[in-house]
């Protein structure tokens, strides 16, 4: 049976973020084209739910649906009342959340994390939320270890994300964890978004979109991605943009939130993961194709990034899984544990 994702729609919700789970999980299919997830929406009661826009959303299901979920997603809302102001649940919301079965995976997008925190699910855990709310979130919930500098965090069965687009990154991360990068990449292609942004990437980037007429590092990154298996130096990248290494490094960090070295290692880890999932190439060959040079170097970087050896990763995420439905959930990404 498809993994059931239940999205909890609360008054004042943001329509964009409500739609993220439906868009990402709803596009995930096995090799035979069968949906891998069933996505349903519920409210605290059936009926219209206010949004922060000029329309309401008609929700057919009430909170009893939460008891059937394998994963519960709480998108952001601008009308959380005492949850946001005092860090406590309303009786109605507490009753709804009490229906969630032990062991259910819990996910929040942006300020949806306030709901999980008020319910105690984040106590003692690392979590994130939108950078503009992080200080308030930490004051309200001192038992939570808030990291305002990342896109998303995975701490056991509870996953939290920063605002808006970071919710897409988190849902793609979950698809990848459940079914491997081939499925997640296909979802990303259909959604026309990057297939993977590391959870540890900075939320607040100084210049996420270059000003009109300003130089960027896009050409250098495209050049690097075409030759990941070759020895590459920072000076090679800077030369592609006809600037000094210092200027290139500054621009790169402003645009991506990462240093060129961090980004390059991440891209090579990504290439190695794809090859481990989709081919039977020997480890030494995978290491060379990904640009690590040796299997020992690849093992070091992959283990640092995802917490397991290349052999264990391949065993978890084989492309040829029975029925195309995937195996057990795999390892976490670098900054998400």
Describe the 3D structure.
The protein is α/β, with parallel strands linked by helices and 337 residues long. 40% of the residues lie in helices and 12% in strands. The protein has helices at 15-26, 82-86, 91-97, 113-118, 134-140, 165-179, 181-191, 218-225, 234-240, 245-256, 260-278, 283-290, 295-306, 310-316, and strands spanning 3-8, 37-42, 47-50, 56-59, 71-74, 105-109, 126-127, 145-146, 152-155, 158-161. The strands form 3 sheets. It has a 6-stranded mixed sheet with strand order 2-1-5-6-10-9. The protein has a two-stranded antiparallel ribbon with strand order 3-4. Strand 7, helix 5 (134-140) and strand 8 form a beta-alpha-beta unit. The longest helix has 19 residues, at 260-278.
State the distance separating the first and last CA atoms. Answer: 29 Å
Overall morphology:
globular
**Strand line-up across the major sheet:** 2-1-5-6-10-9
The residue-averaged pLDDT reads: 87
* Radius of gyration (Å): 21 Å
State the helix count.
14
Total count of strands: 10
Stretches where pLDDT is under 50 for at least 5 consecutive residues are: 204-210, 319-337
List the main descriptive attributes of the protein structure presented here.
alpha/beta; 337 residues; globular; disordered C terminus; 14 helices; six-stranded mixed sheet; two-stranded antiparallel sheet
Topology:
Layout: E1 3-8, H1 15-26, E2 37-42, E3 47-50, E4 56-59, E5 71-74, H2 82-86, H3 91-97, E6 105-109, H4 113-118, E7 126-127, H5 134-140, E8 145-146, E9 152-155, E10 158-161, H6 165-179, H7 181-191, H8 218-225, H9 234-240, H10 245-256, H11 260-278, H12 283-290, H13 295-306, H14 310-316
Parallel strand pairs: 1-2, 1-5, 5-6, 6-10, 7-8
Antiparallel strand pairs: 3-4, 9-10
Helix pairs in contact: 1-6, 6-7, 8-9, 9-10, 11-12, 11-13, 12-13
């Amino acid at each position: 049976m498809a993994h059931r994702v239940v999205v909890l729609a609360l008054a004042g919700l943001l329509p964009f973020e409500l739609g993220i789970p439906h868009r990402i999980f709803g596009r995930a299919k096995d090799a035979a084209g069968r949906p891998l997830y069933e996505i349903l929406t519920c409210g605290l009661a059936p009926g219209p739910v206010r949004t922060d826009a000029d329309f309401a959303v008609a929700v057919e299901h009430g909170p009893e649906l939460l008891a059937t979920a394998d994963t519960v997603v709480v998108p952001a809302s601008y009308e959380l009342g005492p949850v946001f102001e005092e860090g406590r649940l309303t009786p109605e919301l507490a009753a709804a959340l009490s229906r969630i079965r032990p062991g259910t995976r819990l996910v929040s997008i942006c300020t949806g994390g306030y709901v999980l925190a008020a319910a105690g699910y984040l106590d003692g855990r690392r979590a994130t939320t939108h950078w503009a709310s992080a200080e308030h979130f930490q004051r309200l919930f001192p038992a939570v270890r808030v990291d305002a500098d990342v896109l998303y965090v995975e701490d056991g069965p509870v996953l939290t994300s920063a605002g808006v687009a970071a919710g897409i990154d988190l849902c793609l991360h979950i698809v990848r964890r459940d079914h491997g990068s081939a499925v997640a990449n296909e979802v990303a292609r259909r959604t026309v978004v990057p297939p993977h942004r590391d959870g540890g990437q900075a939320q607040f980037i100084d210049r996420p979109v270059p000003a009109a007429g300003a130089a960027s590092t896009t050409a250098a990154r495209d050049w690097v991605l075409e030759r990941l298996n070759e020895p590459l130096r920072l000076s090679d990248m800077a030369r592609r943009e006809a600037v000094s290494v210092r200027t290139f490094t500054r621009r790169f960090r402003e645009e991506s939130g990462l240093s060129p070295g961090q980004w390059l290692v991440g891209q090579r880890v990504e290439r190695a993961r794809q090859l481990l999932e989709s081919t039977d190439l020997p480890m030494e060959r995978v290491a060379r194709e990904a640009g690590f040079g040796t299997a020992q170097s690849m093992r070091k970087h992959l283990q640092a990034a995802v917490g397991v050896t290349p052999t264990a990763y391949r065993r978890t995420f084989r492309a040829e899984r029975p029925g195309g439905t995937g195996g057990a959930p795999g390892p976490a990404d670098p900054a998400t544990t």
